[in-house]
């Protein structure tokens, strides 16, 4: 199994920034890519960004392109999501998830991900 632990959420004003971290442990060799998803009240869980462990190929949802940046520290099994220029509509619980699907671009459907963290709340006040 792969264990994932997110951190870095919080309350921030619109226009502000946060950095989320996802620490992976366990059988990380089974993980091809890590994705960040978010789940806002009344909405479905949605893909935000993803990155492959090997080539660090990064992908973003259109709604966050140019504002969010995903990166990874391969040696430390850490994935980061830098959130800049935050908007009230970015408010959600953010989850990192691991997929073993070895495809590029990486998959964006939640059901294609095998392991999930517990989530971290991001609240953006306007």
What does this structure look like?
The chain has strands spanning 2-7, 10-13, 18-26, 33-39, 46-52, 58-60, 68-73, 78-83, 92-99, 115-116, 120-125. It has 126 residues and is mostly beta strands. Strands 2, 4, 5, 6, 9, 10 and 11 form a seven-stranded mixed sheet that branches. Strand 4 (33-39) and strand 5 (46-52) form a beta hairpin. The radius of gyration is 13 Å and the shape is globular. The mean pLDDT is 96.
Key words describing this protein structure:
about 50% strand, globular, seven-stranded mixed β-sheet, about 130 residues, mainly beta
Secondary structure layout plus pairing:
Blueprint: E1 2-7, E2 10-13, E3 18-26, E4 33-39, E5 46-52, E6 58-60, E7 68-73, E8 78-83, E9 92-99, E10 115-116, E11 120-125
Parallel strand pairs: 2-11
Antiparallel strand pairs: 1-3, 3-8, 4-5, 4-9, 5-6, 7-8, 9-10, 9-11
């Amino acid at each position: 199994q792969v264990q994932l632990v997110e951190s870095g959420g919080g309350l921030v004003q619109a226009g502000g920034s946060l950095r989320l971290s996802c620490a992976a442990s366990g059988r990380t060799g089974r993980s091809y890519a890590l994705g960040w998803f978010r789940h806002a009240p009344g909405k479905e869980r949605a893909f935000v960004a993803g990155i492959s462990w090997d080539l660090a190929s990064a992908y973003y949802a259109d709604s966050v392109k140019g504002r969010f940046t995903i990166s990874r520290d391969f040696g430390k099994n850490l994935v980061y999501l830098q959130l800049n220029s935050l908007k009230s509509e970015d408010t959600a619980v953010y989850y990192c998830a691991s997929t073993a699907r070895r495809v590029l671009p990486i998959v964006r459907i939640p059901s294609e991900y095998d392991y999930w963290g517990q989530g971290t709340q991001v609240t953006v006040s306007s």
